[in-house]
Design goal:
The structure holds 2 protein chains of 2 kinds. By secondary structure, chain A is mainly alpha-helical. Helices cover about 85% and strands about 0% of the residues of chain A. The chains are: A mainly alpha, B mainly alpha.
Chain lengths: ~160, ~160
């Protein structure tokens, strides 16, 4: 349980005690987690479906990538802050949850890919094939992150 | 607490509802689809609304953005409605009295009414909101109302499970 010490510390903070001590607080933070993830997901969908030519066909994909940076970062920040609070509510549950390390690994991979694609697209350094392959892989990774996230709460 | 009417009890008692309710796999799979529907729907709606409020993609015209993302929104809506309908059918008796379920359905109706009214009125001129022509205030109002109402649907939806 490599995360347990950190999770226990989180649970002892004032915010951790608040979210762990009330069902309504937990549900509110979960709502924030989903809302943040929906904003992030919207940015991921528009960027990568756009790069695949499935939406926003007439618009330069690198403009879509750039124009959704703030939305992506805002959604990510909301999801991470609320995610840390959810962990703080039940540190043992998340430290021992088999899907938690999987989700964290998938999330790290998805983030590196998404940030890399955005950086390289801004430089114009990617051929069409790499843009499309990267977009497809990104969608796949975020789908896996979402599925793992939902099932953390179920197992 | 009021007892559900007979037809609600009957819906909840069908073998179909019982099968979903008692399945260790089907129920969470439906919940997973419900989340994906929510992300497809809310994510694309948020982009269009935030564009009309000039908060994202300001160098892209609203018309092609809204037109092109609409099919994704519809797919999300269909997935959300199908999975949500099945989840509700399976739990009809226990959710009948749930205050958050009721508020969510009202907010959902308002959110749908908001977009229907928007598309029937000022949205029809979206093609003109380019360059120096700002997005008119009524359209910004519809966009802000849409963000608030869908957020309300999402939050009340999450609270259903706990109260």
């Amino acid at each position: 349980m490599p995360f347990l010490d950190f999770f226990l510390w989180l649970s002892q903070t004032a915010a951790g005690r608040w979210v762990g001590g009330s069902t309504a607080a937990f549900a509110a933070v979960e709502s924030l987690h989903i809302a943040g993830f929906a904003l992030l997901g919207g940015a991921v969908l528009a960027r990568n479906l756009g790069a695949l030519g499935l939406v926003l066909r007439d618009i330069d994909p690198s403009r879509v990538r750039r124009g959704l940076r703030v939305l992506f970062a805002t959604g990510l920040a909301l999801a991470i802050i609320s995610g840390a609070l959810l962990i703080a509510s039940s540190p043992y549950k998340y430290a021992t949850n088999a899907l938690f390390p999987l989700k964290l690994g998938l999330l790290t991979a998805a983030l590196i890919l998404e940030l890399g694609l955005t950086r390289l697209a801004a430089l114009g350094a990617l051929s069409r094939g790499w843009v499309r392959g990267g977009a497809a892989l990104s969608l796949l990774l975020w789908t896996a992150v979402t599925t793992a996230g939902r099932w953390i709460g179920l197992i | 607490m009021s007892a559900p009417p007979g037809w609600v009890e009957a819906v909840a008692a069908t073998p179909f509802s019982v099968a979903i309710r008692e399945s260790e796999l089907l129920f969470p799979i439906l919940q997973t689809f419900h989340i994906f529907g929510t992300i497809l729907l809310a994510g694309t709606i948020a982009i269009v609304d935030l564009r009309l409020l000039r908060l994202v993609l300001t160098d892209i015209e609203p018309a092609p953005l809204a037109r092109s993302l609409l099919p994704v929104t519809w797919i999300g809506f269909a997935v959300m409605l199908a999975s949500g309908g099945l989840l509700l059918t399976a739990q009809a008796a226990s959710l009948y009295d749930n205050a958050f379920m009721r508020v969510k359905l009202v907010l959902l109706a308002l959110a749908i009414g908001n977009v229907a009214l928007f598309h029937a009125t000022t949205f029809r001129y979206i093609g003109a909101w380019t360059g120096a022509t700002p997005v008119p205030y009524p359209a910004r109002g519809f966009a802000a109302a849409s963000l608030l109402l869908w957020t309300g649907v999402l939050v009340t939806g999450r609270f259903i499970a706990y109260f």
